Every structure is written in C-alpha cells, then in structure tokens.
C-alpha cells in the first residue's frame, strides 16, 4: 500500500515540502527539461526549482517536439546550461540588457547528453557554464567531479550570477529539508559510515 502523496511536490503527505517552497520572481526565464527517469526520484530538485520560481517551466521527456516554440521566447536569448569547450561563463551575461532563457537539462550526465543527442536544436544552443569551485550541499551523493551541483543548486548559482545582488537562496530551503529528512531516515550512524568522509 502506497502512502498518500502531495500532488504538488510529489512527496509523501507526511513529508510535504510545500510550506518551504518560496515563490520567487526572476528576470531570467528558466526552462527545465527533465529526463523521465528523474520524475519519481526521491530528490527531484528540478521540480522544487520549477515550483519555487514564477518564471520557470518544467517539461518531462527525452525528445521535445515543441522545442522550436519553447526556445523562441520573444525578448529572451536562449542559452543552454551545460559544459562544453566553447561554453561562455555566466558572469559575461550578467550586465546584458536582454534577459536570458536559461535551458537546464535535468538527469544524470549520461542521460542529459542523450537528450542533447536526440534534440539537435537543443545541442546547437550556445552554452553557458557556472563559475568553477561551486560546492554541493548534496551530502547524500558522491559528486562525479569538483563543481558538480544538483539541478536546484546550479539554478540558484546561475540566477545569483545573472541577477546580482538578488538572492535565490530561499530556493534551497526545501532541498536542505529533503536532505536532512533522508539523513534522519537512514540514521546518523549509517550516514556517517556511508557519507561522512567526503
């Protein structure tokens, strides 16, 4: 028998995060393209980001038929937040007059690359990257490398770069509560044994 689920945050009703999710305005439009395998993930941070930002949209899929329409938002310049040799650092856009449509793939690195491969229009977008040295608060997962952040952490860092001095830290409140809840569920001893030496 499954536990009753909150229809908004998709968490069990007993662990609903909705009271912690802010409603933040941003000049930047955020388009989250989520791989279907992430939808039921316990730490679905893309959904938390989409719920917390008034100017964000979350679309689930592998192939996005509506991509031409989604990317052609009048008044916005579309950029893909994904590493590449020719990716521009986000601070270069901070003073730009035209707001950005920040396209963020959500999935494992492998699945995100597959999404780019299956959607040539997505792969062809100019790419932007975050400043190096970001440290993830995601204490339950071993990062694949330095600067590897969860989707919500990457969005917060990107928005704070593009829209300084505005802060988007409140977006991280439900994420941190989620992690604390997972640690509490596994027990401090198990957490320390499996994750404490990172």
UniProtKB/TrEMBL annotation:
<keyword id="KW-0819">tRNA processing</keyword>
<keyword id="KW-0949">S-adenosyl-L-methionine</keyword>
<protein>
    <recommendedName>
        <fullName>tRNA-uridine aminocarboxypropyltransferase</fullName>
        <ecNumber>2.5.1.25</ecNumber>
    </recommendedName>
</protein>
<comment type="similarity">
    <text>Belongs to the TDD superfamily. DTWD2 family.</text>
</comment>
<dbReference type="InterPro" id="IPR005636">
    <property type="entry name" value="DTW"/>
</dbReference>
<feature type="domain" description="DTW">
    <location>
        <begin position="2"/>
        <end position="187"/>
    </location>
</feature>
<dbReference type="InterPro" id="IPR039262">
    <property type="entry name" value="DTWD2/TAPT"/>
</dbReference>
<dbReference type="Pfam" id="PF03942">
    <property type="entry name" value="DTW"/>
</dbReference>
<dbReference type="GO" id="GO:0016432">
    <property type="term" value="F:tRNA-uridine aminocarboxypropyltransferase activity"/>
</dbReference>
<dbReference type="GO" id="GO:0008033">
    <property type="term" value="P:tRNA processing"/>
</dbReference>
<keyword id="KW-0808">Transferase</keyword>
């Amino acid at each position: 028998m499954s536990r009753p689920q909150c229809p908004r945050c998709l968490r069990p009703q007993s662990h609903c995060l909705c009271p912690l999710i802010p409603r933040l305005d941003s000049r930047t439009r955020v388009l989250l393209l989520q791989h279907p395998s992430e939808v039921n993930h316990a730490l679905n941070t893309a959904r938390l980001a989409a719920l917390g930002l008034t100017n964000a949209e979350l679309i689930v899929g592998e192939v996005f038929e509506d991509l031409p329409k989604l990317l052609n938002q009048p008044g916005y310049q579309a950029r893909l937040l994904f590493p590449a040799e020719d990716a521009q650092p986000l601070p270069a856009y901070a003073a730009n007059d035209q707001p950005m449509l920040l396209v963020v793939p959500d999935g494992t690195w492998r699945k995100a690359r597959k999404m780019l491969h299956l959607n040539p229009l997505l792969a062809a977008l100019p790419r932007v990257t975050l400043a190096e040295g970001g440290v993830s608060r995601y204490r339950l997962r071993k990062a694949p490398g330095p600067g590897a952040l969860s989707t919500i952490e990457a969005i917060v860092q990107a928005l704070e770069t593009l829209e300084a001095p505005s802060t988007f830290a409140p977006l991280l409140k439900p994420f941190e509560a989620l992690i604390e809840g997972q640690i509490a569920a596994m027990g401090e001893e198990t957490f320390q044994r499996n994750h404490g030496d990172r």
